[in-house]
C-alpha cells in the first residue's frame, strides 16, 4: 500500500502545473497509471475526505476598505472575462488566485497539502482573521511585463507606532516581484532585493505595489517595484529585484 501511495504522489507531484510560467494557473498533469484496485480506491476516496477547492484569499472579504474595493473593481473590469465580447479598452488584466500554500496551485494539491507538511502555510497567508495582516490581490497585464498588487495592511503588521513594519513591506515587495518573475519563467528564487524606504505606510491604509520587468538575461530576471498611494501621488517605497530561474529538481532536493 505504501508503494501504491508513493506512485500516486509521484503522479500528483507534477510541478509543471504550479503557477510558474502559467498565466491561467491551470495545466493538466500527465496521466497517472493506477495499477491496483487499492490505488484506484484511494484516488476516489481522497476528494471525499478533503475539499475539492482551496480557499482563494484574493477574493473580497468584509475587512476590505473602500479604496481596496474600488481598485479591485477597477482592475476586475479590465479583466479578460469582463471585457470579452466588448470593445478594446486598452490594457487587459488577469486576477491571480491566492492560496495559503503554493502546493495548492498544482493539480491535486488541495489533497496533498493535507498530507505533505500539513502544518506549513505561506507566510503572507497564515492568518485566517480577515484584515488582521496581509490583505492583497494581484493582477498581471496580458503581456506579462507589468504586475500590480492592491495591498491593505492590517494591525498585526505594526513597526513604528501606527505604521507598517519595514519587514512586512519588503515581504510584500518580494511576494509581488517573485510572483511576477514566476509568471515569466519556471520556478524562481530571489537572488537579490534592494529596498529604499521613502515614506511610512499607515496601518489600515491601502497602497498600490507595481512590478515592472526591466530586463531578461538568460536565467536572470531584473524587476523594479514601486509602492505608492492609491492615486500615485505619494511614493512610499521603491525597490529592485533579481530573480533566477531554477529547475524543478532544485525544489525537490532536501
From TrEMBL:
The enzyme's E.C. designation: 3.1.2.2
Record keywords, A-Z: Apoptosis, Cell membrane, Cell projection, Cytoplasm, Fatty acid metabolism, Hydrolase, Lipid metabolism, Membrane, Mitochondrion, Mitochondrion inner membrane, Transit peptide
Membrane topology: Peripheral membrane protein
Domain Thioesterase: 162-234
Gene Ontology annotations of biological process type: apoptotic process; fatty acid metabolic process
Organism domain of life: Eukaryota
Catalytic activity: (9Z)-octadecenoyl-CoA + H2O = (9Z)-octadecenoate + CoA + H(+); hexadecanoyl-CoA + H2O = hexadecanoate + CoA + H(+); octanoyl-CoA + H2O = octanoate + CoA + H(+); dodecanoyl-CoA + H2O = dodecanoate + CoA + H(+)
Residues in coiled coil: none
Protein's cellular compartments: Cell projection, Ruffle membrane; Cytoplasm; Mitochondrion inner membrane; Mitochondrion intermembrane space
Cellular-component GO terms for this entry: mitochondrial inner membrane; mitochondrial intermembrane space; ruffle membrane
UniProt-recorded Gene Ontology molecular function terms: hydrolase activity
Family note: Belongs to the THEM4/THEM5 thioesterase family.
Name assigned to this protein: Acyl-coenzyme A thioesterase THEM4
Organism of origin: Xiphophorus maculatus
Lineage: Eukaryota, Metazoa, Chordata, Craniata, Vertebrata
